[in-house]
């Protein structure tokens, strides 16, 4: 018999734009329940999400572990979604593991290798990915597959990467880093420090073609490959306006993770490519 009980979801970082968009997607989606408590850093208060009043607890002022454990007792089967800050990624991951709560980490940045290593070793269920947009994940998976099937295919080519996001995003896109890794497996010699970050309005609207109404929420990426003699070039782009693609994909990841937890799957650490492969996206 299928369990009709909604999956309770805590969205940490609900006070931010991505957190709020995801919380709104949770409210709209059948089978999920946004709980009225969330963790935040340096901020406390109440955030209204489509009629749900979410109380944000400042972990700098209160015991985040106690708050999270109480929420787990009150809402059995709780899954946490994290859209906080890059500098909070590792500490938050440690907290979720310590409490034993399944989580979806959508926040980019932090020490990703340490995060993945610690979560995997713990056996705590989690989906950790730098990109939650469904179609962008498919593109990312295709690039990874091409690199596995045709290693060195672009040896000798020069790669340039330009990514534009809203000015509030300070770190380099995790998606860009993942795509660069595939290009390097294809034979390019490119360091992620070479990725050009475009955050000023003039270049965003002019050079990158970002619509003015989406300056505060967009992700425009261009990857250009040029042969050594300059006679051949390839260009890959993925341009996203708004946040709904990420929010909906995040809720898909929550549903996927819930099924894995319920099935007591032997694998516990996943990424969005795992979600995509299972066809677990609405």
Automatic annotation (TrEMBL):
Signal peptide coordinates: none
Recorded superkingdom: Eukaryota
Q: Where is the Dihydrodipicolinate reductase N-terminal domain?
A: 8-132
Q: Which Pfam families match?
A: DapB_C, DapB_N
| Location of the Dihydrodipicolinate reductase C-terminal domain | 136-276
Give the reactions, separated by semicolons, that this protein catalyses.
Answer: (S)-2,3,4,5-tetrahydrodipicolinate + NADP(+) + H2O = (2S,4S)-4-hydroxy-2,3,4,5-tetrahydrodipicolinate + NADPH + H(+); (S)-2,3,4,5-tetrahydrodipicolinate + NAD(+) + H2O = (2S,4S)-4-hydroxy-2,3,4,5-tetrahydrodipicolinate + NADH + H(+)
What is the enzyme's class at the highest EC level? oxidoreductase
Q: Which GO terms describe its molecular function?
A: 4-hydroxy-tetrahydrodipicolinate reductase; NADPH binding
GO biological process terms, alphabetically, are: diaminopimelate biosynthetic process; lysine biosynthetic process via diaminopimelate
Where does this protein act, in terms of pathway?
Answer: Amino-acid biosynthesis; L-lysine biosynthesis via DAP pathway; (S)-tetrahydrodipicolinate from L-aspartate: step 4/4
Q: Which GO terms describe its cellular component?
A: chloroplast stroma
Keywords in alphabetical order: Amino-acid biosynthesis, Diaminopimelate biosynthesis, Lysine biosynthesis, NAD, NADP, Oxidoreductase
Give the EC number(s) under which this enzyme is classified: 1.17.1.8
Tell me which stretches of the chain form a coiled coil: none
Q: State the family it belongs to.
A: Belongs to the DapB family.
User: What protein name applies here?
Assistant: 4-hydroxy-tetrahydrodipicolinate reductase
Source organism per entry reads Ostreococcus tauri (Marine green alga)
